[in-house]
Batch of 3 targets.
Target 1
Amino acid sequence: MADYELVQKLKNIFDGYPQVLAAYLYGSYSTGKQSPISDIDIAVVLKDRSILLDLSADIAQKLNISEEKVSITELKFLNPILRLKIVRDGVEIVNKGLNLDLIFSNDGEIVEVYELEEVTCKSWLKGNPVDVRIVREIIVGINEDLDDLEELLKYGYSRVMENKHLRKSLERTVQTLTESMIDLLRHIVAGLNLGVATYYKDYVNYAEKAKIISSNVANEIRKLIPVRHILVHKYRTVNYEEVWKIAEKLRLIAKKLVDETTTYLKEKLKIGII
């Protein structure tokens, strides 16, 4: 836990700087694990960068420490994952009504993948790498979505587009099917410790590099990721003709993915899936 007295002193200092829109204490001082050689790490959002040197000197003077011990960094210049950790796990010193969604507006995928990696890492540390039960559950979900997709495609493009319920069902099925395909690769990549992902495409790249899936399947899945993002985050700009074409191809891609991943697990790792 952070030192309450230190946090209060910092709050008082930052109250005198209206140019600072938000500030977060992070690193060892934010967890109470500082040592005599630790710096005081602070991430800030500014509307005027010219105050940085004065602010750093002021903090050092009022805390009676060397200015070299004060490290102030602008949040927007940090690695996206570090930004997320600072805002989520650090100590908020000040926030003058700043909408932090603006800070992460371009990092949506990174945030999603980071959170998935945290969950996967915990499972891996428990010594349960490739969980056959989870693989089966994902494949069952893929097959269910494929059945739904087949049914929708039989209706034909015009009928689906004219019926808002069918249209929304098409969107949702393409989205969840794509997510399940990526989730299958994520579980295998993490279980085999093939690499840590920052973007969804990283799971595809790792699986392709390890020869778990073919380059053809990998290329097709990489094309699907932006479509998934549009369906999740920008659904009002959806090009339905494009989604329909993708849905037709998606049937084959998903089936090939399941075949290739199950074959790999059975033949290379001697893991029975079905």
Target 2
Amino acid sequence: MKAAAKEFFHVARFLAVDCKADLNITAATKAAGSFDVVRFLVEECRVDINVTGISGVTVLMTAAQHGRILTVRYLVKECKADVNAADKFGDTPLTKAAANGHFDVVRALASEYRADVSTVTNTGTTPLMLASRQGHADIVHYLKDNLR
């Protein structure tokens, strides 16, 4: 997996530098699993990480959904990504992390970056409900203790 991520970084660099390709938010969202690629796209290609695609998904949402804590921290601390941004379904980085069982990401978003733990999706679902439905007991207990 690391080899694939490293190879993707070289491909992204080649496209941006050698081919002068316009690597945009779609590329950044697809690369959210690779910290080096996201950092390259932000710092070298000047991709605006708060821009969304048609569905409203941000790079931060994708990183949170896949448990990429290093990328999440970078996007929030360095890039000032909106921790409460919602897509067209009302999902936020926190709902995506909670539903997918990424405790470290949930804790960082809720405690360090003050994401709204009471946020509700368009279907009336909270991060607590999503974690509970998926059987993520550690997240359920954490969110219960940190509801504000």
Target 3
Amino acid sequence: MSFRSLWVLLGIPLVAAGLAAEVPIITGIGLIITVAIALSRLWSRRLFNRLNLKIPITNSRIYQDEETHILIELENRKFLPLPWLRIVIQLSNELEVTDENIRTIAGDLHQTVVLRGSIGWYEKKSWKIPITSKHRGNFRIDSPVIHTSDLFGLFPRKQQFNVAANLIVYPKIIELTDLGFPADRPLGESKGRNQLFEDPLRIAGLRDYEPGDSLRRIDWKATARKGEIQSKVYEPSAAQHLYVFMNIDTLSHSWEGFLPEHLERTISVAASISVWATTVKFAVGLLANGSLLGSDRPLRLPPSRSKVQILRILESLAAIQPLTMGTLAGSIRREVSRL
């Protein structure tokens, strides 16, 4: 039996013994202990009432080796303080806590971060956890647990909070000159308008239907007049397009596994080219024979000049898995009919 349990069981017997022996001091001590235990239990039951916790991230999208902060924001919206508390939160081992004063406990897949403190009545407090990562990925930070107790530590309690935050770590971006591309024209000479991509708003003429033409290409009025299916011919797009094809195969056969360093280098090169193309106003797309977690289809992002396109590409490259979804050549063949 613990020392704490002895205190809980001591109050009423002392009162009874003091009354029986007619010793007021023993009765008084017993009453004090009994009242303290009753108040402590009542305190303990209300510790988590009107207690709010949030875990925002100062910058939820970073590149490898950049630093950001996880904020633990706690608000006590009641008159009852928490005299001591311990906040426990799990992080992936691929994230590194850069503050040596913050206690971390290493595990197989996760590390446990332990924060200590207290919070008074109607008070807000925050803790800051500086983190960085040498690994790309989509990291979920959720379900922190708070351990606390009453003033005397007689009735400890804990509660898990269903709050979460996501941290996306983009692949490392490398200057194209460092990858061996020429500085003035990294992708070689440009040859005028892009013949591969077409502008659907500019119709150059009509032609007979060909297998693989989409329904949007068919001119139904011309088809009705001629009696044969007619497809629209679009003028070449005036915008420069860049479609990045990425092969995630690092070995001859997928069942052999993969080489992590080679895969990360491939992903980093694809990200670097995409970022460069965005800065020079290209319409950028990405096609890969890998997929995102939970998806059964190869990664496909058709070229676009949208302002959020580069974010889509970087987020996809951050989360792409090493499992191949067929060959890249097969993905390209399927894509040709859509262009």
